Every structure is written in structure tokens, then in C-alpha cells.
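Subject: for your reference before the review

Hello V.,

The reviewers asked for a structural picture of the protein, and I figured it would be easier to keep everything in one thread rather than splitting it across files. Below is the amino acid sequence we used in the manuscript, unchanged from the supplementary table.
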Amino acid sequence: MDKGEIILSPDLWIILSAPAGSGKTEWLSKRFLEIIKRENINPLKILAITFTEKAAGEMKMRILSMAKKSYPEIYKKYEEEFMMLRISTIHSFCTNFLRRFAYEIGVPLGFEILDAPTAKIYFDEKVDEFILERIFKKRKEYEWLFSALAFFKWERFIDFLENFFNKRPLSDNVFNKISQSEEIINFIPFEVENLNEILEEVKKYVKDFELPDYNTLIENPKEVYRIIKVKKRLENQILDKKLFEKFENNLYNLFFFHITFYISLFFKDILEYYFKMKSYEAKVD
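And here is what came back from the structure prediction:
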């Protein structure tokens, strides 16, 4: 069996690798038509996926042209079907699939696929809208978080949220494990395992500042933030500088863990709000 027959045979799985302009589209178009001819099947039962819309258009035109010239009997038999060939990008195929079965899947019939710039603008709008409607007007749960983030710049916070969003569905695994802030004790990182012992040593030096106990620090990020704000004052009282360094490192590890944990909860709420509003707007449209 020569190479040409291998490429055209419907019985074989093939990988056709060749440089640009070497005739791949020509051979794949022939293979498409040979499958119709040899298997005697409707062209609409063949799915062809391309990387770009341009490539999909070129392949459609190539198959139509080749069918008219080299496979006239097939073209005459399936003339209407050739006008509706299933050749598209994977994004286009998935979009059509979702539209066809939107009701069964639970997707709004009027949904649209946003390009990257538009999606970013929409996401930013919903983050701002969520913060105004759900945080500043109605809830106080995250107020300490916004105060703490003043240390790091608001842009970093937004970048953090965007990274969560861009890593979906992997980031969804985090949200599935975290449902309530009370569960924080189950996620404490190993970096702060020695904080309890260090805290007891630090209390021996600090006399004019009330340090909370270990469990309070773990469960209440506001207390961690309160200590970080006066760390210079504590540094002057703790004569053992290595002890202070360990204490400081543990505090920051715990603090960043708290931020990550609560932003996870916060971002989960944003996502729920984002998709709820997108679904609502699609239904309204």
C-alpha cells in the first residue's frame, strides 16, 4: 500500500505531518470524499476540526471544488448536504453543540462567546459591581481584607483574582473544598506549625501589648493583621532577634495564607455572581 492509499483509506488512523504549502489540505479533502465514497455515508456524519476559521473555510471550498470535478456522482447525490458540511474550529463546534442542546444542559439560549478583551472588560465590571453591591453596602465580612490589601496595592488584588479566573477549572477544586470560613483550621500550612511555641517565647518579652493565643491567631485574621501593624514596636521589645525573625516570618506566612483563603471564598462569591448576572443578561437579551 503506497502513501497515497494509506492517507485515503477510511480503515486507517493517520497523522499527516508536512510543511506549509506541501498539499496537506488537498490530501485531507480527498480523504474526506473517499470516506463518503467508500463508506457510502452522508457528508453530515463526518466532523472535521481545524485550528482557524480561515482553514475551515479553505477546506470547505476545496472539498466542494474537488467534489464537483472529481466526484460528480457524490456531489449530485449530496448536493444540499455539501452546503452544510461540519467543518469548523473546536470553539465553533462546541458553541453550536451548546446552542443545539442549550435547554437540556441548562445554558441560556441567548449566550454568546466573548473574545478575550471583551471578557476581561466584563469580568472587571462584575468585580467592581460585586464589591459595591455585596461588600461595601451589605456585608462586613471582608472589610479587614480590604484594609490589609492597602499594604499591597489594589492592582495586585485584581491580578490575584484574574489568575484564579484564568486557572479555572483547576481553581474550582479549591472552592469545592472550601465552603465556610470556619473550615480554615483544616487548611493551615505547615510553615506555621511552630508558631504556637514561638508565640509563647515572644510573650516573655512583650509587656505592653496584648498578644492573642495561638488558636485566636489561626481563626481570626484580624488579630494577625493587628500584630503586623505594630511589628516595629514589637521588634524593639524582643531582644532575641532570631526569635523575632521567626515570629515575623510565621506571622506573614499565616497572614498570606489567610488572604489566600478568604480571597478564595471571596472569589467563589464573585464567580457565582458573575455567572448569575451573565445568565440573567443572556435571558433578558
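For the response letter, the relevant points are probably these. Residues 280-285 have pLDDT under 50 and may be disordered. The chain has 16 helices and two strands.

Happy to draft the paragraph if you're swamped.

O.
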